[in-house]
Amino acid sequence: MLLRLDDVSLAFGSRPLLDHASLQVDEGERVCLVGRNGEGKSSLLRLVSCAVAPDEGSVWVRPGARLAFLAQDLDAVDDARVIDIVAGGLAPDAGESWETGYRVDTVISRLSLDAEARFSSLSGGWRRRVLLGRALVAEPDVLLLDEPTNHLDIEAIEWLEGVMLEFRGALLFVSHDRAFVNRLATRVVELDRGKLSSWPGNYDEFMVKKALQLEIEAKANAHFDKKLAQEEVWIRRGVEARRTRNEGRVRALKALRTERRDRRDRIGQAEISIAESGESGKRVFEAEHARVAFGDHTVIRDLSVKIQRGDRIGIVGPNGAGKSTLIRLLLGELEPSGGKVQRGTKLETAYYDQQREQLDLKASVSDNVNDGNEFVPIGGHNRHISGYLRDFLFRPDQMKTPASALSGGERNRLLLARLFARPANLLVMDEPTNDLDIDTLELLEELVSEFQGTLLLVSHDRAFLDHVVTSLLVFEGDGRVREFVGGWSDWVRWRDARDAREREARSRGAATAAAPAAAAPAVPRAKRLSYKDQREFDTLPATIELLEADKARLDALVGDPAFYSRPATDVRDTLARVQSLAAEVEGAYARWAALEALRAG
């Protein structure tokens, strides 16, 4: 056992975050802490790191065990060099020696950091790598990570997964990235209404078990409430009840009332809706050989793409590749350096951009959404602002609270409430999932999936991309953008297969180049195929014909505008099959060519 929380309570103001909670973490465990925004997950990590003390109970860490903490917020650091920041993670008693210098150099190399770079010049993702290096250089027994994937692109997240899988100590982390949790977690611990519950396995396994537990809890609460109501009727029956009053029964009723008062009901799910407007024109955007350059640096090169009404496009690539630039180009906020971009008619755009769409932190929650108006027009009806904000899980007492008092996740929800109050047929979302708890994230996912307009989505959340988009624009380097039909997992399978074929081709080329030159070319002689290979060679043309016919049928289906009005699962399955068929056709042709070459000798 490395650390233990025993009967811990912690409250800020009148709201308890931890209510007599207990937790144990053992060596080699990778424990993910989940829960709603504002439940106290970050506070629990600060308790474990001894940054705050509990109101009640105790926090025990094994004597001599080293802890390192990567916080959610990127704290301001002066203009120090990367090597100095990483070295700052060493224990105060480590001193300067050959061994400590080696450890610092090893971490910097392992994380591909520029030792002499100034921290202030780095992007958010690289800053997070530096601070992770600062945490790892101490060779901790327990590593605490609070939303480690924030500000990281997909490539960096996959790199971080690899580093954490190799980490030998115990890992206690908070994350809303479901793919990240599924790959890393050996156990999920949920913080819900001040209590901690432990669930072995990854996030998907936790969700199945949690749904069953909530169903049981709802039934138990309904039974309890029915019994309490019956007892309340009995105590109010007047003279007859007083004559037959059973003091034990009265005491039992008082106990029931106390239990009901102490029961903290689970906060309801957010109920988000988009104020959709009328349809746009069929063409939304069309780029022809578009180019964007800043000086000598070309960000987007020779882009030709058509985006039509109802398309659901994910935009992916490394940080700094040009994803936000592409959105600005399509929306007309940026003129192309070459080529042209045409925009459709009747476009009403709702644009979610965490960097651009800022809240007025001095204004209240309700005024941030509706500029002081009492009603919000949603779906042709006026909704009172308090009811609308309750759909986004804001309590009545928060309506007049300044936005500055909200947590990061609550501010994100407020931005979503502000965005969705505007009628739109084009939804543009630039990294919408940062700081959202998983419950709200899954609801946003469902909402975006049901949006009938056109979607442009920049995201590093692989599960979110898989569930809501039907095609991708992928930045592949040097300003090149590839259009791909399918979601993120489809792209990864196709990319890995392509890269494997290229490696094999290079390997064959290297082997051919290394082979000694023959004195004279041999006279080619036809080889006799084995019975099995000959049979495969004879049947492949018919197989290819069937595969291509099947693909043509599905291509026609996908080309029908009505196709995207089908259920999201049907759309995803069909697009996945199209991608699979394309790979099968390509593989069949490659196999036929290989057998033909073997046959020709």
Helix segment count? 18
Average of pLDDT: 80
Span of the ends, CA to CA: 65 Å
| Strands, count | 20
Which parts are unreliable, with pLDDT below 50 for 5 consecutive residues or more? 239-243, 518-527
State the domain count. Answer: 3
Largest sheet: 6 strands, mixed
- Which structural class matches the secondary elements? alpha/beta
Spatial ordering of strands, largest sheet? 5-6-7-3-8-9
CATH class label of the largest domain:
Alpha Beta
| Percentage of residues assigned to helices | 40-55%
User: CATH architecture of the largest domain, please?
Assistant: 3-Layer(aba) Sandwich
Q: Remind me, CATH topology of the largest domain? A: Rossmann fold
The fourth-level CATH homologous superfamily of the largest domain is P-loop containing nucleotide triphosphate hydrolases
Q: Bin the strand percentage.
A: 15-25%
Rg over C-alpha atoms, rounded to the nearest angstrom:
30 Å
Q: What is the general shape?
A: globular
Task: Tell me what the structure shows.
The longest helix has 33 residues, at 203-235. This protein has 601 residues and is α/β, with parallel strands linked by helices. A six-stranded mixed beta sheet has the order 5-6-7-3-8-9, with helices on both faces. Helix 17 (531-559) runs antiparallel to helix 18 (568-600). The protein has 18 helices and 20 strands. It folds into three domains: 3-206, P-loop containing nucleotide triphosphate hydrolases (Rossmann fold, 3-Layer(aba) Sandwich), CATH 3.40.50; 283-488, Rossmann fold, CATH 3.40.50.300; 524-600, Orthogonal Bundle (Helix Hairpins), CATH 1.10.287.380. The protein is 43% helix and 21% strand. The radius of gyration is 30 Å and the shape is globular.
